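Q: My hope is that you can spare some time for a protein that puzzles me. Underneath my words sits a plain record pairing an amino acid chain with its backbone structure tokens. Those tokens are not coordinates but codes from a learned vocabulary of shapes. Thank you; the sequence and its tokens follow:
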Amino acid sequence: MTDRYFRKEADGIMLFVRLTPKSAKDAIEGVETTDDNRQHIKARVRSIPEDGKANAALIKLLGKWLGMAPRNITIVAGATSRVKQVRLEGDPDSLIAKLSGLLSR
């Protein structure tokens, strides 16, 4: 699969996310490609980017969107940045299929 908004790993996937805090709503807005040809999932949360509140809201939003327990979602890089690497634990093939289905709607 040639999608670049995630990387398949042995026991999950690494998802690349661009988070916009202090938004009017919590939402996943699809895949975005930057000028340097990198892709990420565009997400918005109402929470403010202080004391990890926006990161916690992102984990909750991803969990609800993907139907996953928040304990299986971890921000591994970019905790203080808008662009984050989020680890999703689980069967990589079923996670990729779920992502593809949700993003094709």
Remarks:
- The chain has one domain: 6-103.
- The radius of gyration is 13 Å.
